[in-house]
Amino acid sequence: MTLETQVMNLESAAQNAETMKAMKTGTSQMKKIRQETDIDQVDDLMDEIKEEMEMADEISMALAQPVDPLMTDEDDLLAELEELEAEDVTEQLLEPMKKMELPDVPSGELP
User: Fold this and answer.
1) d(CA 92, CA 77)
2) Residue 90 phi/psi, 5° resolution?
3) Dist CA 77 CA 68 (whole Å)
4) Which one, of 46, 43, 65, lies nearest residue 54 by Cα?
5) pLDDT of 34-44, one tens digit each?
6) If you write DSSP's letter for every residue of the chain in order, what string do you get?
7) Could you tell me which residues come within 8 angstroms of residue 66 by beta carbon, excluding any fewer than 6 positions away?
8) pLDDT value at position 71?
9) Distances in Å between the alpha carbon of 2 and those of 7, 11, 16, 60?
10) Which whole number is the average pLDDT over 44-54?
11) Is the whole-model pTM more than 0.70?
12) Residue 44: which H helix or E strand, with range?
């Protein structure tokens, strides 16, 4: 073994030791954070967020309601118009056909 090989091996061993130390530190910090925050706290927080979002949706829907009670939704008006038009067409189709005046049939030979 040459001196250069020994130096490289020592440097590699030192890097491995530092990596191991950093991994242990990271693991202990993760355990500390996890101990401070358990799954029940996370579930409670998520429930609170969901409730707040639902409340925000309810507020948005309340604010979107028309202030004027006489104002109606345009979609409702269009649906009513279509309904009335459909009734009118149905009535027209149910009316007996009026006798139509047709031209006389030619009595002579056609050109």
Assistant:
1) 23
2) -60, -45
3) 16
4) 46
5) 888 888 888 99
6) --HHHHHHHHHHHHHHHHHHHHHHHHHHHHHHHHHHS-HHHHHHHHHHHHHHHHHHHHHHHHHHS-SSTT---HHHHHHHHHHHHHHHHHHHHHSPPPPPP-PPPP-S---
7) 72
8) 64
9) 9, 14, 21, 77
10) 95
11) no
12) helix 39-64
Place of tokens 């269009």: 78
For the chain, what's the residue count?
A: 111
Extended strands (E) in the chain: none
Provide the residue type at 4 as one letter.
E
For the chain, give percent helix, strand, coil, nearest 5: 75, 0, 25
